[in-house]
């Protein structure tokens, strides 16, 4: 008891001892005082990684011991720390987007920050903020989907959360980094309005969140390398014009030009510091590197000092000079071996519970054809569909490779798909140390109540045999994607997915099971939209789209299936029947080397393209069912605030039989002639409600939310005319409409 109390107070002390955030002015003053005492070598050292095989973290800077400046540690990545033991495997960005919950977005950021800090990581390499321009884009799952507003909010909350722990966030990848094929040199050609309203928008939100670092991308933009692009990084470029005060770091090996060119264009730091085949090694080059460029005057001392100042100011801004834990792991030994791995666990019950909650909150119930029985006394029981009533199930089958434990020691990039898919592959994966697969969680929930048959492969005959005439068959299937890395191929996919099909004939498996079991419950683990031609099969009573939910995948799903957690996740993208419905493509082949990709669809991604082309998707953006029902009541009250802002108020009621959370969504239609998509997401709110409870909800519209980027005035402009606001449960499930 005394011991427990002591531990608790240490924990409280640890939190209380946190850090003191300083103003940027004060931080720059401290930085400049150090810079005044530094040699050129020391300055260059702070701006250059120590090399891919020398760093203890995934990237380290050179310390300046005599001035008390430590090595700054950078570590992957957006879904939890990678190459490190004793950490939590968090839900992916795309699942976090599915929650449509600022509370959970921020809580995940805080937890990621706490684990980074506990490991001594100064800069957490996330959030990933790349727009899912095409649904097959390999790294789409790391970020928050195709909608700029939702991506912006996910990014903002993550950064606020991470930086609240004194850890720096790194907004990435700047910018228009939207496919894996050819990524080391592809150019994304996009017009100014598309830049501001779509791909740049989340970066504006990251600056709103006071992010201390931004990572420039591998690709070129308009023909110029992102990391050497003064339109993006320079003093008059996108970031600085919008008030960014921190530093820009290259993606690992994303520097392709001489040091003087990238430094003068606006890059501050190169990682990992040396040449890594795909690029890099610019700053430390003996002839064309940063030091010779400073000696020759090609890079001025003022610019050099500015570069160092930005790196150090970010460090002082978050108080990392005092009380920040030293690095206690060694990314060179990801198995935990070696004398530099000090075996510090930063896992906690609170983080595990949060991961489970986010995973449940991100599970999207796409279909539920429930048949019930009302006993003389007590609550409704489910005969078919969800939630499962345990006493009604005598025989059960669990089918599909995706239900079982994956190989946890696949490789450091999780380039495997041999069990359940809880996170994609690449530097955005996490350590995969403690996955609880669906089959284990279902078996422990069932605890012998029903007779169980399993077929934990995608063998079609074995799956059908296990499912035949069972009271319920759970069938699992997945689709995965990841980072190109060093041209890695996983089951024939080189980063980007080859198609929108489920892997390993998952669709056929589902159809074979549905043909023999009239209570087939489908669970999809996928990094993005998949085609679901079978979704209306009458024997498929329920479909749960569970995304890439992180290490508590099994328990979080069972909570939903058995009704302990009322589903409330919503699709952060549309699910359509073919890729052409999305209006963009991945460029796989290019005879002339690195291709040019023209973003001719401009603002029209996903639902915006479908609206413009009269396409009704199978499941629309923002869609997701609940075990209860919600009623909206108006009229919409639209109040004007300071400088033209608006506050939209309405009431939501839980009109069903169990407590639940509604995700109220606001879509805005701009005045005709403004050149905007038919409607765009501009607000959302999670509304938890007990049975019969009502709540008034207010969603604010800021000025930027009602503006277009005017390419003549180069400014945000609220277009004249009538705006239409719709509020509802998805983009197509409109409940209330108003105008202003
Ligand atoms: C790319 O070039 C187009 C056409 O010249 C221009 O409108 C746009 O602003 C440029 N994009 C960026 C991100 O600088
Ligand atoms: C897991 O993957 C590793 C690395 O590919 C391999 O050596 C090992 O045999 C695999 N384990 C199992 C159980 O398949
Ligand atoms: C479902 O199948 C079971 C057994 O195969 C059968 O008893 C039941 O009547 C069927 N229910 C429906 C609605 O088809
Ligand atoms: C639904 O399942 C039953 C077995 O329960 C099967 O007899 C029937 O053919 C199936 N229906 C379809 C459309 O596959
Ligand atoms: C729902 O299930 C019933 C049988 O319980 C079936 O008749 C009906 O076709 C199903 N509806 C859908 C939309 O699948
Ligand atoms: C993009 O436009 C350029 C210039 O018009 C053209 O050469 C290139 O082929 C286009 N790219 C693609 C993938 O169509």
Explain what you see.
- This protein has 740 residues and is α/β, with parallel strands linked by helices.
- Among the domains are: 156 residues, Glycoside hydrolase, family 3, N-terminal domain (TIM Barrel, Alpha-Beta Barrel), CATH 3.20.20; 235 residues, Rossmann fold; 112 residues, Immunoglobulins (Immunoglobulin-like), CATH 2.60.40.10.
- The protein is built from 19 helices and 27 strands.
- The strands form seven sheets. A six-stranded mixed sheet has the order 1-2-3-4-6-9.
- The chain is globular and about 85 Å long.
- The N terminus is likely disordered.
- It binds 2-acetamido-2-deoxy-beta-D-glucopyranose (6 copies).
Number of helices: 19
Distance between the termini: 62 Å
Going by helix content, strand content and strand pairing, the class is alpha/beta
* Largest sheet, spatial ordering of strands: 1-2-3-4-6-9
Strand coverage percent: 15-25%
Number of strands: 27
Q: Can you list the ligands bound to this structure?
A: 2-acetamido-2-deoxy-beta-D-glucopyranose
* General form: globular
User: Could you please say which CATH topology of the domain at 363-597 applies here?
Assistant: Rossmann fold
Just give the CATH class of the domain at 363-597: Alpha Beta
User: Please, what is the CATH homologous superfamily of the domain at 363-597?
Assistant: Glycoside hydrolase family 3 C-terminal domain
List the uncertain runs: 1-16
Major sheet size, sense and barrel closure:
6 strands, mixed
Helix content: 10-25%
Overall mean pLDDT stands at: 96
CATH architecture of the domain at 363-597: 3-Layer(aba) Sandwich
Radius of gyration: 26 Å
